[in-house]
Here is the input.
Amino acid sequence: MRSRGSFALNHAVAFLVWWMVHCGSELVAAVPPDGWYDYTAHTDCRGRPEPAQYNGGILKYGNGDDPNGYKTTETGVLSPAFVVYNLNKSTMYTFSGWVKLEGSPSALITARLAPDNSGTRCIGTVLARSDCWAFLKGGFVLDWPTQTSVIFFQNADRTPMKITTASASLQPFTTDQWSMHQKDTIRKRRKRMATVHVADPHGTRVVGASVSVQQTAKDFPLGSAIASTILGNDAYQKWFVDRFNAAVFEDELKWYSTEPASGLLRFDVPDQMLAFVRSHRVMVRGHNIFWENQDATPRWVKGLSPDDLRSAVNTRIQSLMTRYRGEFAHWDVNNEMLHFNFYEQRLGPNATMEFFSVAQDADPLATLFMNEYNVVETCDDVSSTVDAYVARLKDLRAGGAVLEGIGLEGHFSKPNIPYMRAVLDKLATLNLPIWFTEIDINNKFDAQTQAVYLEQVLREAYAHPAVSGVMLWTALHENGCYQMCLTDWNLKNLPVGDVVDRLLQEWQTGQVAGPTDVHGAYSFSGYLGEYVVTVNAGNTSKQATFSLSPGDETRHITVQI
Here is the structure.
């Protein structure tokens, strides 16, 4: 049964469609796009709105064709709106615009899509203000074609207020175009051209030498969570190191694991896990120092007085980070603090800032992260919108916290890929490394559907220019995994495991070979990472190593033979 609120909202949308059609408001048709995706985004509030992306895309304005035109509506539930016709199934739609309020200093504003009056969905959010213009960027994909759809703005809590929008844009991309954008970014950010020059001891070019190049290590970190189940399991260990160059411990570093009772420290399991990853040159993230969720707080900690709690948290940081100083590349300092506030409620609003400060002093070489869920996974969680994440990160840094990494958990249901890209675009404005830290697909979907959705997410994450690493939340247990396993307990691939193996194969250079040209050179395009090159000329063979690091210029390697 639908709620009365939902019934009223649907009728309001239906009335808005009727009014705009019959009273001459803007009506737009879905026309094919041209050009490339615009990764531009803004997280600062501005005195004037910027011009519309894509010159407004398929949106046309009632007062001429000015894509920077203003649209203001003052209503209760519904506010500025656009009617669009003939939206296509599977097309990637990116939506953007600038928003300003009147009558309220700030509010969370959502852009919503009502396709064919069949309910509404969130397609973007922005923390708007009355003293400046804020940028909203989002997007959507439809599961079926629609004849008439409405895009409208509303206050997230649906209280009446005056909302003004400007420079709105709706731009469609076909799936082929979207894939083309991904491939172009991979070519520019994940690969590099290289030329191997072969010369004799006198510097004379060697024409026709046989050159073979093999990638031995990847630059981009792509890994998975592991648990204590990997210890003593040689087959699992081999399976893991054959695929991944990064790891994170699922639960073994969390406070409830390392100190189940006050003063009872247990580091034997994480010590053994660390020895395993270290022995195979696998980088490892530290997860986590604190977790704001009360349900994930050690039982003995919950009843402490504020003074005793402060002492306990300081001991926790010191014992953990002194023991593992220099071992973990990253630390998630205070997990999920946009959703929960166990420590800040008891120690004050500056608790997290103090956590970061002490952690930085204890291990200055580690990169300290925020880590949060539902930032890219959904548009409907008002606690963890992209602007809420940005605002909290900026507040911490303004207070002196050395916060250098953006952690996005990535626990997806059905992914909204255009929205995911839009959120990454906004986070990229902070110029900090962005990591997906816990990617999986909800197990409410069947295995094949999980595989389809996982491939969509991984391709988008790997291709986005601001993403620095990807971790899967797929620690293997005999009774399964948190939401998604790559294999069964016998290490036989499940459909998502096939996806991961195929992408790992796709995103590596493998072996390339050929003869040197008339200039004594052999050129190739390779994924960033470490390489060994073997050159054979006549009866002479020479081997050398080199690395392809990020850069726009061709990497030149000279081998003397």
Observations:
- The two ends are 79 Å apart (CA to CA).
- The chain is about 25% helix and 30% strand.
- Confidence is low (pLDDT under 50) at residues 1-12, 17-33, 72-78.
- The first helix runs from residue 4 to 22.
